[in-house]
Amino acid sequence: MTDTRKWALQGSPADGDSRAYRSALGRFATGVTVVTCRDAAGRPAGLTVNSFTSVSLDPALVLWCLERSSPSLNAFTTSGHFAINVLDADQRPLSDLFADPEADRFAGLAVEDGLGGVPLLPGCLARFECALHAVHDGGDHVILVGAVRRYAERPGNPLLYFSGEYRRVGG
Hints:
mainly beta; Pnp Oxidase, Chain A; seven-stranded antiparallel beta sheet; 3 helices; riboflavin reductase (NADPH) activity; NADH-dep_flavin_reductase; Flavin reductase like domain protein
């Protein structure tokens, strides 16, 4: 069978059009996570992330990426521990909350303390409690690799992100 669809946009990162490049990247559907830690003063920190992926089964390693200009960069690169909370389809408000740089993200939120006192969010599909394993250069981002120390999962459906919009499985 011949694919008759036409390419809507073509380009190269060398073109300097970061919006077009970002649009093409957005064609890859991802899950939505909130990554949490505690800063050096013990204050909780967290943000919405869709750049999470597994790295290795043995040893159990995962990674995620954080923009170098993020106000949370120091907290995550020095805390020693972080948790990746995989959001359920019904947790879009939680994703929006942790994506808002002006929000008091933990106000009124019932969290459990995980390894290293890391906040664990309620109602998630899965969570991975990690020790910071490595930090790598990733251009305008840093790549944080976590050694998974504990994990948990429950049934449900994931919150997805595709082409700049939230989605659900089958919708």
